[in-house]
Amino acid sequence: MHSFNDEEAEDLSGTCIEQYQYLKILGRGRTSTVYLGKHTVAQKTVAIKVPTRSHLMNYHAVSRFEMEAKISCIVEHSGLQHTVDFGYTSTGWPRMMTRIATGKALSAVLADNGALSLDASLVIFQQLCHALHHCHQRGVIHARLNLDDIFIDLPILQHDSSKQCVTIIDFGDAFLIGEEAEHLRQKMIEAPYTSPEQFLPHRVDFKADIYSLGCIMYETMTGKRAVCADNLAAGDGEWGNTMFDNRFPSWLKTVIERCIAINPGLRYSSVTQILDDITPSRVSSNQP
């Protein structure tokens, strides 16, 4: 029987724990470590997410980890990193196995390539809208969508954009519609992409994800943050550099501004409405 000790909890690479091999670390976060793993019988490659020891000792953190697994099991879409297995080891350590997101984070893509073209950006936004629509249909609010949580498979984007090239990952802060989002207000994280109402005692709905999407759309095409405010809870969120160069038609600026309105009542009411405004047929009709 394998038991976890402090040293092994830091890096499980090279170990095999109850039918799963831990091959290497894919990434580390504040609350967990993600490994490239493989099932020893099925030989299926997965990502294995394991909470840090400090979070394992926190009841609320473990509850959130279990909720993340539950929610990412609900969503099964090619543009979402859903959970394929979840459980506790014999030593009581929870772990979540998910499908692997190919490519690299959008933040890294922008760092390497700068702002993306209109055509490439629209493909990304259309696929994001489809994935978010799948979530919202099932009552799931991602709640923390940002550049690091969107993976882009660049070869597919560049050579066959009709295929899925975008994957949304990390449902660690996601919740179901109608539930309280107190855990988000306590964190105050990712402020440049997080809707102002998430920091206030208001009911949060799908429009929170629409706000984040608008911020991401703007930054993807300009390389600059859409909102610059030290504390959006104060309600003083302001646009950054809102000047679009000649690549961006006025209709697209209108779409983004509607997504990122500080007042949720002024935003799109659903991602399908956004999708309607950025589909190829609508884009063609809006061209000057």
How would you summarize this macromolecular structure in one to three sentences?
By secondary structure, the protein is an alpha+beta fold. The chain is 37% helix and 17% strand. It contains eleven helices and eleven strands.
Overview of this protein structure:
By secondary structure, the protein is of the alpha+beta class. It folds into two domains: 6-98, Phosphorylase Kinase, domain 1, CATH 3.30.200; 104-286, Transferase(Phosphotransferase), domain 1, CATH 1.10.510. 37% of the residues lie in helices and 17% in strands. The protein is built from eleven helices and eleven strands. It has a six-stranded antiparallel sheet. Strands 7-9-10 form a three-stranded antiparallel sheet. A hairpin with a 5-residue loop joins β5 and β6 (94-98). α5 (118-137) runs antiparallel to α10 and α8 crosses α9 (250-259). Mean pLDDT is 84; it is low at 1-8 and 230-241.
What characteristics describe this protein?
single chain, 288 residues, alpha+beta, Phosphorylase Kinase, domain 1, Transferase(Phosphotransferase), domain 1, 2 domains, six-stranded antiparallel beta sheet, three-stranded antiparallel beta sheet, 11 helices, 37% helix, globular, disordered N terminus
